[in-house]
Amino acid sequence: xxxxxxxxxxxxxxxxxxxxxxxxxxxxxxxxxxxxxxxxxxxxxxxxxxxxxxxxxxxxxxxxxxxxxxxxxxxxxxxxxxxxxxxxxxxxxxxxxxxxxxxxxxxxxxxxxxxxxxxxxxxxxxxxxxxxxxxxxxxxxxxxxxxxxxxxxxxxxxxxxxxxxxxxxxxxxxxxxxxxxxxxxxxxxxxxxxxxxxxxxxxxxxxxxxxxxxxxxxxxxxxxxxxxxxxxxxxxxxxxxxxxxxxxxxxxxxxxxxxxxxxxxxxxxxxxxxxxxxxxxxxxxxxxxxxxxxxxxxxxxxxxxxxxxxxxxxxxxxxxxxxxxxxxxxxxxxxxxxxxxxxxxxxxxxxxxxxxxxxxxxxxxxxxxxxxxxxxxxxxxxxxxxxxxxxxxxxx
Amino acid sequence: xxxxxxxxxxxxxxxxxxxxxxxxxxxxxxxxxxxxxxxxxxxxxxxxxxxxxxxxxxxxxxxxxxxxxxxxxxxxxxxxxxxxxxxxxxxxxxxxxxxxxxxxxxxxxxxxxxxxxxxxxxxxxxxxxxxxxxxxxxxxxxxxxxxxxxxxxxxxxxxxxxxxxxxxxxxxxxxxxxxxxxxxxxxxxxxxxxxxxxxxxxxxxxxxxxxxxxxxxxxxxxxxxxxxxxxxxxxxxxxxxxxxxxxxxxxxxxxxxxxxxxxxxxxxxxxxxxxxxxxxxxxxxxxxxxxxxxxxxxxxxxxxxxxxxxxxxxxxxxxxxxxxxxxxxxxxxxxxxxxxxxxxxxxxxxxxxxxxxxxxxxxxxxxxxxxxxxxxxxxxxxxxxxxxxxxxxxxx
Lengths: 396, 396
Known about the structure:
homodimer, 17 strands, Urease, subunit C, domain 1, 2 domains, TIM Barrel
């Protein structure tokens, strides 16, 4: 494998952390055997392939921490949305039309992964529908598309249509984990599955037994959502699953009073519960700055991309980070940078990625973007000029 | 002037309105002497310049109905945001730094207009700061940049720093109108200017006396904002200014109870008050679908683009329409189309544009975009393949 030398870029957060919002000094990055060998000014590397990224911001690979690859219609013709405005309507529409539209489709998933990769995403966590009707077809389709893609794809066995309310689902979740799926999911233990304690029994039980990650969808709002977050935090702590549990969406965190919010956030930090947000539609966005100040991991993801649940989403994680920053009313560079942190290091922590970062020895998953710094990269999200995965230049 | 024939596009809302969400039949568009001459299948036009837009959606020129060209830093180096999180902080920061940064800048305004034009915007309404410190410098800078641009730019004399609270401003507003500025603005008659009735006396008085449009910024929320909307509606009706009055932002409309909201909306429809929204940050978005169902004109604009008030904004009105649709949780094609309507016909009505549209005799301000229909154009907002202003091909 030929060495690659990235010449003249500005590597973000390499070595000693720069002050947030401060200009980033230029440095070359030498890549050897799929890892970052050295980051320093004016590296001499005879024989190395030189890639000129002068003046550009160099980032670690972008991490898509919450999407639904199995549902996507990406790359195909426009499909007008056909559900009504209720959650039940969207679930019914999804179930009713997926056959007709050939969902899950290895070709569509592959098209979306190609788009994600071109935009610098190197790691994806995707929630794959598991239910008695579809069985593990989604898991298999995602696995097949991922095998043909440079993107590192990790699946969550996701009970989209309930666990307790959809008999047979728990067994299929277990089968998915046995087959190698990396995480187990959950969905509104109260609002959808109607029995929060038993729902959490099932999904925490599976995560513990199979040593996997757990990532729960929580749309339940207000005090109900807050209470469920308490339950999730308590279990994470008692079971010692810190660092392996994430809650996606968590709209309730944008709706609770300050004091209660503070107690919940302390709990996340202490137990090691991560939050994942996409700032989707007009739903409340968790308080990213406050969560980060408390040391809670915040990750970022699109949620659905061009699917039967909604037509939006581009697959570009810098654009998604823009939505998070914009909806958080972040105007200052150091605040906007928090959204980029969520789309990179935060996602890596939530997913438990090994060797992620911009330091010597880290995997050479790298992205270059023509921006003066993190805030401009998020706000403008220009086309990526370089994408590298495990030391291989994929786009340049 | 050579005739131009747009071959094979799908003109949106030409002639008889298509059903919202329905596929749009292909038709050629013949342009002669700056106007649309004919729209029909397979037009023969010997000698015409033929532009192939086969399969593409053809739209009328996009209308940016609310921006602040005079404040922009567009096209220059990234400027980190330096205000604190308060409105007073942002106003102070703006006043304090505009000299240092050379705002207003004819070059920066020109760069933004060039970007807007490339993205298909043919008409702009821009709120230009008027205050005793800056005088009419902003008006002159915008005028100079607009004179060198194909974009039709209409200014609003905007009392950004108050009218009553900033003596001398009313006289300057009047001087701006005398110099030919097309509209007078207002700003939070209660929240900022502290005397809503006298504020409205001044700005409605100027609009009446000079026969101009009036476009008021209203950030004041809840029942205060609702009450101010009542005052604005009453005056519009009594003075017979229907069709010439717009309220921008109107966050209160996203915060009021249904019954009161219904009464306000009836009032707008009856009096002829238009609403302008950009769905900015996380602020409440007026109920676009309900406003349109009641026959109220809804227009769309970016608000600030890359300026001392905030770093966001691209100048692309299809992307801005996406924000409006997304924040309105519009998923269905016919709903998403309402956002495009706001960025085109709605803006044209709010600004009082003559000869706007996609019918014979309308001005040939045309945009082609590779999309199957209005919803895809908004959601994906792909690069424009054709922009024409008054029959002249500007980008192709």
